Structures are given as C-alpha cells and as structure tokens.
Amino acid sequence: MLDGFVPFPEEFATRYKQKGYWIDKTLGEEFDDFAIKYADRIALACNGEYCTFREMAERVYRLALHFIELGLRPYDRMILQLPNELEFVYVYFAAVKIGVIPIMSLPVHRDAEISFFAQFTKAKAHVIPSRFKDFSHQAMSHEIRKKSPALTLTFVSGDNVDPAFISITALLNDRIEERIPVAALSSYRPDPMEPGVFQLSGGTTGVPKIIPRTHNDYALMFKRASEIIRLTKDSVFGIAIPVNHNFALTSPGLQGALYCGVKVVLIPSPRTDVVFESIERERITIMPTPPALLLRWMEAPELSRYDLSSLDAVLAGGARLNPEAAKRIKPILGCNYHQNLGMSEGMLFWTERDDPEDLLINTQGAPMFEDDEVRLVDENDREVPYGQPGELLVRGPTTIRGYYNSPEYNKKAFTPDGFYRTGDVACMYKGRYLSVEGRIKDTINRGGEKISAEEVENHILSHPKVENCAYVAMPDRILGEKGCAFVLAKAGQDLTLDELCRFLKDERNISAYKLPERLELVHSFPMTEVGKIDKKELRRIISEKLG
Ligand code: AMP
After folding, report:
1. How do residues 58-74 score in pLDDT, each as one tens digit?
2. Is any atom of ligand 1 closer than 6 Å to the C-beta of 439?
3. Residue 541 placed within a domain
C-alpha cells in the first residue's frame, strides 16, 4: 500500500463492494471500456481541433508506453499543471492507466505551491505548458527541480521546449506502440483500492492538504453524477473552469461525460465572449460553473448576440448560489440548473431537475448514495435538532478517510469513527436536502477557488514591515468573497496594498488568486475570549465598511 495513504476500513470496503458501489476497476480500465464502446464518436473538442474516442485512446496509450519507457511506475507521483487543452486529457488518462498518480494542481500555481507538492509527495514528474498567460512554467520548473531531488522529469506541452525537458508533442509523434505492444500496459495495473488521483484541498492550514482519491471511489462518483444530471449521448459537455478541479474532472466532469460517450468541449478561458462563442459553435448542452461565472454570464451585455439555445442545464457549485440569482437562470439563460455542494474530499450533493422549486432554489441538494452518512453537529459534536444549523460531518463510499501523509492533522479533520469534518455549517431541509448557511473553517471562497487564510497569513507575516496580520473574507457581489488583509505594521512603518502584493508575488511566489484585494492597516486587533484574533469581528467590520 502507498505509504501515507489512509485506506477505508475493511468492514466499510466490504460493504461498499457488496452493495455494488465499488467494482474494482481502475480508472484506466474504465477508460478502456468507453474508448472501445464509443470509438467513432467525437470525444474532445478544443480550439477548433477534434478527436474521436479511438484517436484519444491511441494517444493515451502511446503516452503511457512512453511514460513507462522513461521510468515512471505505478504509484509514482506526477504534478499535472496543464490548462484546458487536449494534452491535459492525454496525460491524465495515460498516468492513471499505469497507476501514476496525477497531482491536480492548477496552471496558476507558482513556485510556493508546486515546490511544496514536489517535496511533500516526492513527485517524480512535472507536466507544464511551455507558456501560459505570459508566465514561463519552464523557468519555474528549473528552479523547483533544484530544490526537489526526486523531481527528475519535466514534460512540456506546446512548442519551444527547453532541451532539458521532454516535449509531449514529440512523444505523441513517436509511434512507440510499433516497438512495444499496447498490451504491455496491463502489467502496470494499479490496485483500485489505492489512490488513483491526488486532489488538492484549499485547506485551512499553512500548507495545502493532499486528497487521495481511490480508483474505486472516483469512478463511482462520476458515474452516479452523470446519471443525476441526465447525460445522454446527445449531450455536449462544456468545461470553462480549470479541468483539473474535482468539479470539472469528476462531478461528473470530463470523466463522467466521456463515460457516457459525450463530446467534451475544453474551453481555454472562462471569459464570457469565449464561453458564449464555444456554446454557440459546439452546441454545448451542459456546463459546470461556479455561481461567480454564472452571474457574469447572466449580466453580460453581449448575451443577446449569441445563440445559446442548445444549453439545457448549468451545474452550479463550488460556492453558494444566491436564491435570487437561482431564480434568474431560467428566464435569462433559458436552461435548467442543478445546484451541487461538492468537496474534493468526496461527498457530493445535488438538486435534481424536477425537484420542487423551493428545494431547487434554496438548497444545495441531497447526497448521491443511500450509504452517504450525514451528521450536523454542535461544537461538542452533539447532533443538532432537525432544521437547526450545525457543522456538516460526512462519511460514505466516495469520501476519503484521511489526507495523504498527515496523521496529526487527520486527528482534527476526521472524527474517530471516520467522518470528515467539512467545516461547513448547514441545515437539513426536507428529508436529506441541505442548505449551506456558512462555515467555521478559516478559508476564503473566491468565486469557488478556496484560499487558506493561514497559508497567506504566514506569507504576509514574513514581510519585514509586518508585525501581525489576519486574512479574512470580504463580500463581493460577483465573486462572493475576496481576500482582505488586516495588518498591524511594525512601529514607524507604512505599507501599501501594492507593496504587499508585489512582495507576495515576487518574493514569496504565491498564486495571484490568493493575493489580498484590500489592505486595512490597524493599530490593534479585536480579540476573542481565548486570546485569538477575532476574525468574525474583522469580517463584520469590513462588510460594514463596504456597505
Ligand atoms: P473544493 O474542495 O475546492 O471543491 O471545496 C469544497 C468546499 O467548497 C465545500 O466544503 C464548501 O465550503 C464549498 N462549497 C462547494 N459547493 C458549495 C455550494 N454549492 N454552496 C456552498 N459552499 C460550497
């Protein structure tokens, strides 16, 4: 078993298998099946390029053979940082086919995050675009490799590949299957009970947490989710958010769509005009989207210039959809919607299309499986009365039992009997439906992208002019929340937002989406009774200031 992985207890694993949730197939075997079943259908579209399931499989198997030849083996870790492009799909499935575990990082991650993933997981490979949004991932990979001895392979998509690195295009052009038969891949079959993918938690701690998703539970998730949202062979699935996210990859995402033989359109940017143009051209029927994007679409002046009549449903998740916004979806976009409350740690809740309007608008849905166990508890872990708000605890056949290699943190993040403490505060609403009312975890949810307050605070504290700080969410009409830094400067020092952000970006190398968008200089902090900075009060202060 992979060191640092917390398996499901045997009793639960047996039950999940007996009940047919887990079928002991690897993600690679699931891929083999749909690649054969839908061979002649179009699988992928991106920037006017198309490929069938058969062509996709040929490229995936070719890359997998190259990965083996280059020394990658089952359970090796690979940091996958590609944007929404065809190569992402080839690399992802090539990795899982041979049990190499992709770490689903984002193209916008920078040295601070990637170095951590590389060192913490001892990743062997890093997969990057040659350039993305004017940033050189290749220069970054060189720097990271100097600090990360296990990282010995960098794969690059696109052109102008550094001679020290390996071009994905060159691998795809080299027909290795004429030298080594594709059947050889079957000797590298991973165990479906082991992690197939490492997702990332926005987390609440100084460093991100790694979420090990097994082949069994990940496949279960995308299959059931694809039924709930009613994917059919005539659906066309559009992905404009980073495909690396759990929401876009598995809920049901890329994998669920391909499993149903559905064409997936990878949209390279979430910009409104780019998305609308893709919907019109490819006749997209269904798309995952955080509420922030949905609001932008509904308010876009160019909306009426495009034919979006193919759109059948949008999937709203990642952050709370405001009920007023929910009511506007049908009149403005002319389509249905599903709300979902999801977490990369596993459990997924959905509203269904024919749910009564009250549930559709006011809740984030019900769990997917009978064996999904949900508890709402007070601060002493006692069940709250039905309808009252409590912290959401979850356990079930898609929910992890521990973060990778984090035994101490796992004691806090999971109950002794294995429930994951989500840090979300929710109310039970008519049967098993939930409405999310808030959270107790210390994160900022910026348009669906989670930011750990502690992680950013640690970076801010390293600024030479900073005595103390607190990073909190401030309300934003479109994104829901943005980060606001409250800073106590050292005596006689002054600090501007611009100066702080330049330091965080250039010296600390953190991703741009984590940067504060407002700075409040203070002389002291409000404190709680136990002597901690009172963040609730800071959130109230900034909300009031912003009106
Ligand atoms: P992630 O693992 O990045 O998907 O983040 C999971 C977290 O996002 C959840 O624990 C919630 O805090 C938040 N979240 C996801 N979907 C929703 C939703 N529909 N409403 C409110 N919060 C949500």
Report:
1. 999 999 999 999 999 99
2. yes
3. yes
